[in-house]
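Interim report to the steering committee. The following record documents the input for DFP-domain-containing protein (339 residues).
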Amino acid sequence: MAASSAQQAESDYFSNEPPPKDLQANVTLAREFISRHNDEGRRIVLVTSGGTTVPLETHTVRYIDNFSAGTRGATSAEYFLQHGYAVIFLHRQFSLLPYSRHYSHNTRSFLDYMREENGRVVVDERQSADMLEVLRQYTQVKNQGRLLILSFVTITEYLWDLREVAQLMRPLGPRAMFYLAAAVSDFFVPRDRMVEHKIQSNEEFHQTEGGDGANARAPAARTDGRKLVIDLEPVPKFLQQLVDGWAPEGMIVSFKLETDPSILVRKAQYSLNKYSHTLVIGNLLLTRKWEVVFVSALEGEKWIRVPQHRRTKSFSGVASLVGSADQSSKDDEPESLLE
Ligand code: PAZ
């Protein structure tokens, strides 16, 4: 049978882009994790979180990145764990992690949570109650081995890990869930168009790469005179493959980020129809911590908002938004979010 264009794009991508060095180690960990929780009849969710980078050079000095801090993914992972799931947390290295996110990546040092008493380090009383709650949840999850943390940096590492883990989850059938909150680059530099060494700004040191004579394609990121020219290629759309090829029975929740409110719902609906996911959650860059729109075949369009008085900086878990926030129809006027 002839390969479909999606299968062809997949095979081209994965034969051109080398796997990450830690892929086999990740696969071994994921296989053991999935099989253990499958034997115990537990639901397993793969949460992706944080942004992918697009390296411009093989020995990478420069890369393109995006805004994502991993707040949505890390927060949602905690709620899945609270609801009994086993979680594979595939995140951008050094982005926020479940539980430790409460004490990292903010302007306070973790040392501010402690003080010295009789030559020993103790937790400051003012922090103790909150920290105890987080510590209890974390310890329970750790003792039960319900959280597996894997990491990626580049778009290619992300896609390799996603594909391998999704295929390992296939035997779970409908007990597998994919919660795709990572901000994944739409464009990249293919390996065969990537310069090896640091791109030089000084014309005297410009590289003369591109080997194959007249057939050589120009590097995707290169200097032209004193300008830096970046000419990226589209990342093949693998979301359909997730449904059709890698984990056809799993529940797939994907996110759609936009900055223009007038196209958000349309874009989410487009993704829903095109990729046949169970649910697409739309959000806007500026308001993503307070409101999201659920778009599904079953329920159409449903806005979920955190009430004004509960809007704190760290709130970002859709799983908890579902449980406790106002649920209003699309006709409701969003509250001002930039107070
Ligand atoms: O990581 P974060 O909490 O800062 O942001 C979360 C988010 C906006 C990346 C996520 O909710 C999302 O929309 N992910 C998909 C992005 C996309 O359209 O590719």
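The two ends are 58 Å apart (CA to CA). The committee is asked to note this result when reviewing the revised timeline.
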